[in-house]
Specification:
The structure holds two protein chains of two kinds.
Chain A: E1 3-5, E2 9-13, E3 18-25, E4 32-37, E5 44-49, E6 53-57, E7 60-65, E8 70-75, E9 84-91, E10 98-100, E11 104-109
Parallel strand pairs in A: 2-11
Antiparallel strand pairs in A: 1-3, 3-8, 4-5, 4-9, 6-7, 7-8, 9-10, 9-11
Chain B: E1 4-7, E2 10-13, E3 18-25, E4 31-37, E5 44-50, E6 53-57, E7 64-70, E8 73-79, E9 87-94, E10 99-101, E11 105-109
Parallel strand pairs in B: 2-11
Antiparallel strand pairs in B: 1-3, 3-8, 4-5, 4-9, 5-6, 7-8, 9-10, 9-11
The chains are: A mainly beta, B mainly beta.
Chain lengths: ~110, ~110
């Protein structure tokens, strides 16, 4: 079966650092994606990890450990506009199919 | 250019209407997708087209009918929908790493 877990909600302060964790158990693995989604809008691609390690892109970084079935998204220097839902998704071996976690709602407070 | 376009942005239709949603991408991606997303839920895969052929149908009711006229276009034909079909309908495309979403069509069935 396919199972992706991430926290339901998180709250952090403007200017701080927050880490959103994702654990997965899937039939096959071809990479892990993180998306940001603001209310009423489409998901926006943030990162893609297929090998173990840390990928850094500006204020956002994503980490993957395939042996542990674990990833995290790290957001630095939080801004109010970072308040959104963050979706973890695994690319399985079943031809072009992404399996999504339920999403983590991040609230940034001043 | 990582743009996927969708029309219309909003659609209100009665249960006896026939309408179509349209999606277009010019990134040369050979896989295209339709997702349905309800409020506060992750995107739910409906259909996958790979090289213009339907490769995945996630047991979607026949009142939704996908069509891929060419490698850049994807349509979703709607007929005899139910109020519970009201949702955000997202198109996406991919090639290798990265699945990119269009802005979505907000559908309301009355």
């Amino acid at each position: 079966g396919q199972n992706i877990d991430q926290p339901t909600e998180m709250t952090a302060t403007e200017g701080a650092i927050v880490q959103i964790n994702c654990t997965y158990q899937t039939s096959g693995f071809n990479g892990l994606f993180w998306y940001q989604q603001h209310a009423g809008e489409a998901p926006t691609f943030l990162s893609y990890n297929v090998l173990d390690g840390l990928e850094e892109k500006g204020r956002f970084s994503s980490f993957l450990s395939r042996s542990k079935g674990y990833s995290y998204l790290l957001l630095k220097e939080l801004q109010m506009k970072d308040s959104a839902s963050y979706l973890c998704a695994v690319w399985t071996e079943y031809g072009n199919k992404l399996v999504f976690g339920a999403g983590t709602i991040l609230r940034v407070k001043s | 250019d990582t743009e996927v376009t969708q029309t219309p942005k909003h659609l209100v239709m009665g249960m006896t209407n026939k309408k179509s949603l349209k999606c277009e991408q010019h990134m040369g991606h050979r896989a295209m997708y339709w997702y349905k997303q309800k409020a506060k839920k992750p995107p739910e895969l409906m259909f996958v087209y790979s090289y213009e052929k339907l490769s995945i149908n996630e047991s979607v009711p026949s009142r939704f009918s996908p069509e891929c006229p060419n490698s850049s276009l994807l349509n979703l034909h709607l007929h005899a929908l139910q109020p519970e079909d009201s949702a955000l309908y997202l198109c996406a495309s991919s090639q290798g790493g990265g699945q990119y979403f269009g802005p979505g069509t907000r559908l309301t069935v009355t």
